Amino acid sequence: MAGRLGDKCAIVVSDELPTGLAVNAASVLAATLGHRVEGLIGADVKDADGVVHAGIIHIPLPILTAPSDRVRTIVQAAAAQDETFLVNFSALAQSCRTYDEYAEKMTATATADLASVGIGLYGPRKQIDKLVGALPLFR
């Protein structure tokens, strides 16, 4: 998906996760958004000494929290929106030590059986705000 002017990003993690797992979920979702949304990461920049610094995300990326059932509701609502890109992060994914283990377990798990513990969102500001606008920041 290519980045568009006026779009918004957000990450929502379950407020039932311990801090370490919530931070892990948010970092996985942020990395995936940065990889999958073309243009989300800005160009490299130079400082006053000419040292090059890697580009970073060029729009805000709030990390929000919600109860697990609300995270699941957001996943379902976002999936129904054509212009919204989502990354669903499940408890199954978080429990795996390797990507191969994750891929293997996913092939044996129905979508309805995946417990969402986080979601990364990118899309039109209005749609993202409607999904997550009232949620509190992760603290």
Report what the structure shows.
- The chain is of the alpha+beta class.
- The protein has one domain: Bit1 (3-Layer(aba) Sandwich), CATH 3.40.1490.10.
- It is built from five helices and six strands; from the N terminus they run E-H-E-E-E-H-E-H-H-E-H.
- Strands 4-1-6-5 form a four-stranded mixed beta sheet. A two-stranded antiparallel sheet has the order 2-3.
- A hairpin with a 5-residue loop joins strand 2 and strand 3 (about 50-55).
- The longest helix has 18 residues, at about 20-35.
- The mean pLDDT is about 95.
Keywords:
139 residues, alpha+beta, Bit1, four-stranded mixed β-sheet, 5 helices, 6 strands, 37% helix, 22% strand, globular, UCP033763, Pep_tRNA_hydro_II_dom_sf, DUF2000, DUF2000 domain-containing protein
Helix content: 25-40%
- What topology, given as strand order, has the largest sheet? 4-1-6-5
User: What's the name of the CATH homologous superfamily?
Assistant: Bit1
Task: Note the beta-strand portion.
Answer: 15-25%
CATH fold field value:
Bit1
Mean pLDDT: 94
Distance between the termini: 30 Å
CATH architecture classification: 3-Layer(aba) Sandwich
How big is the Rg?
16 Å
How many β-strands, per DSSP? Answer: 6
Main sheet makeup: 4 strands, mixed
Low-pLDDT windows of residues: none
From the spread of the alpha carbons, the general shape counts as globular
In short:
The radius of gyration is 16 Å and the shape is globular. It has 139 residues and is of the alpha+beta class. Strand 2 (45-46) and strand 3 (52-53) form a beta hairpin.
